[in-house]
Amino acid sequence: MSDITLSDGREITFDFKKLTITEFRDLRNPEKAGEDDKGDEILARVIGLTKKKLQDLSYYDYRLVTRTFWERAIDPLSDPN
Length: 81
Prior knowledge:
The protein contains four helices and two strands. It is mainly α. The protein has one domain. It has a two-stranded antiparallel ribbon. A hairpin with a 5-residue loop joins β1 (about 5) and β2.
C-alpha cells in the first residue's frame, strides 16, 4: 500500500529503514539545511526514486513528498509499512 499518490499517478511508499539516524539529524540541522542536493539524495532513497526524478517533480508533488516525509519521520514506528 502506498503512502501518497503523485499527480501523475505514481504511488510513493516511504521506507524509513533506508534512513540512518545521522542522515535524519543532518536533515534537521539548520546549518545543513541549505544543502538541498544532499537532502534530496536522502529523500529520494527513502521514497525509492533517483535524485534526478525527485528534482524533476512538480513543486506541488515535491511539497507533498516533503510534507508527508516530515509527518511520518517524526514517528516512523507508527507507520504501517
